[in-house]
Amino acid sequence: MRLFATLVILGFRRWSTYRLATAAGAFTNTVFGLIKASITVGAIGAAGGTLAGYDALAGATYAWVVQALVAPVNVFQWNELALRIRDGDIAVDLARPLDPQFAYLAGFLGRAIHQFIPRGAPPLLAGALVTGLALPTTPLPYLLGLVSVVLGVSVSFASWWLVNLAAFWLIELRGLLTLHIVGMSVLSGLVIPVHWFPDRLATLAALTPFPSILQAPVDVITGRAEGTAALGVLAVQAAWLAGVLLLGRLVFARGARKLVVQGG
Amino acid sequence: MRSQTAYRRSFVSDVLGSVGIGLVEFAEVYILFANVDVLGELDFAAAALLFALANLGFSVADLLVGHADHLPVYLREGTLDAFLLRPLPVLAQLITSDVSLRRLGRVAVAVAVLVVALPLNDIDWTAGKVALLVLTPLTATAVFAALFVCAAAVQFWLVEGAEFTSSFTYGGSYAANYPASIFSLPMRLLFTFVVPAAFTAYLPVLVLLDLPGPAGTPQWLGWCAPLAAVVIWAVALTGWRAGLRHYTGTGS
C-alpha cells in the first residue's frame, strides 16, 4: 500500500510540470462546457421543461460536472503502455519487482489527482456564474461521489489498459485507440446523458463498462442517485472495475508470454 | 500520400476510426432528436442538413490542414528550421507535409448524411440557393482551414499551451454542428463574428429553409459566408506572418 501511495505521488509530480498546458486544458474544458450546457438546456427547453428527470438547471449542471471530470478520467488518450510494448521498453517493466498493472494504475490515479482541482474547478466556477449549478447541500453525496470518481478513473484505466494490450499483436494502434475513444465518449455519457438514450442504445451502453466512467460519478455527485441507489451505482462500478482489471491481467499474461524483445 | 495506404490493415483501421468519429458526432444529434422534435427552430431533417454541411467543411479542412496542430511539435524539435531553408512558403510546406487520407472516413460520413438529409428538407429552390448550397461546403472548409492556421500562428507564442486554441478550432466545429439559436446572445455573437463558425452552416441553412434567424444573426448574413471566409483568411495570414517573424529557432 505504501508503494502504491508513492507511485501515485510520483504520477502527480510528473504531471504538475506542465502548468501552462493544464491551464490551457482547463480553458478548453470550460469553452466546451459552455457549448454543451447550451445544447442540454436547449434540448430540455424544446422537450417542454424536463427531459428524463432533468430540468434546465440539472441539465446544465450535468454538462458542467462532466466537463470538470473529463480530464481526470482521461477519455481522450492513453497509449503509454502500447508505446512501451512496441519499442520493447515493456521488458524493463516486466523485470521490475512490482506488478505492471498495479504500477500503471497508480500513475494513472496520480495524474487524475493532479488534474482534479486545476482542470475541474474552472468549468464548475464558470458553470456557477453562467447558468448556476444544482448541487446537493449535504456532504454525503460528495463523499460517495469521491469514491465514485476514483472508481470511474480506475475503470477508465482498466479499459485503456486492455485496449493498449493489443500492441502485443498489432503494430499500429491509432485506429483502434480512436475507436475506443469513440465508444467511450458516446457510451460514457460524455456528450449526452446515458439516461436520454433511446432503448437499444441504452441497452448497448449498459453492456459496456463505459457508463461507469462518467455517468455514474456524475449521478452520485449531483444527487440523482441517492442513498441505496448511490450504493448500487458504486457496486456496479466496482464490479466492472474488477472484471475489466482481471481480464486485463489475463490478456497481459498471454501477451507477455508471446513477447520477444530484441536486444543486446 | 500513397505511402499512407501501404500498411493496409493499419490504414483500414485508421479510416474506420475516422468514420467512427463522424458517426459519434451524428449520434449526438440523433440522440437529441430522439427526445425532442424541434431544437432551435430546426427539425431533425434541418438539423441533419446543418450537421452535414458543418461537418463536411470541417472534415475536409481537417484532412487538408488539420496537422497544423502539430506545429508545437515541429517547433520543439526544430523541424521548422528545415522548412525555413527551402525556397517555398513555410505555410504551404506545413500544409503539404502530411495530408491525412485517413480523415476521408469522416468526410464520407458527412457526405452520406448530406445526401440523405437534403431531399428530406422542403426547400424552395432558386438559382441563388443552389449556388449557395454548392458554395457552402467550400466556404466552410475555407473558414475552418483559416481557423487552423490562426491556431497554428498563436502556437509561436504558446508552444506548451497548444490546447488553448482547440477551444476555437474544435470548439468552433462543435458549435457549428448545432443551431446557433440555442446559444445565449454573447456566445452567438462570439461564434458568428469572432470565430465565424455560424457562417459555415447555420446561416446558409437559414437561407435555404427561409427561416428568419435569431436576434443578432439575421438570415441575410447567410449570403455573406464567402466574405467571412475572406476576412478570416486575411486574419490568419497576418497572424501567421507575425508568428513566423516572432520565431527565432532553438539554435543548432
From TrEMBL, chain A:
Keywords: Membrane, Transmembrane, Transmembrane helix. Coiled coil: none annotated. InterPro entries: ABC-2_transporter-like. The chain crosses the membrane at residues 31-54, 61-78, 142-163, 175-197, 229-252. It comes from the Bacteria. PANTHER family: INTEGRAL MEMBRANE PROTEIN, SLR1174 PROTEIN-RELATED. This is ABC transporter permease.
From TrEMBL, chain B:
Keywords: Membrane, Transmembrane, Transmembrane helix. The keyword Glycoprotein does not apply. This is ABC transporter permease. It comes from Jiangella aurantiaca. It comes from the Bacteria. InterPro entries: ABC-2_transporter-like (IPR010390). The chain crosses the membrane at residues 12-33, 45-66, 104-120, 132-158, 189-208, 220-240.
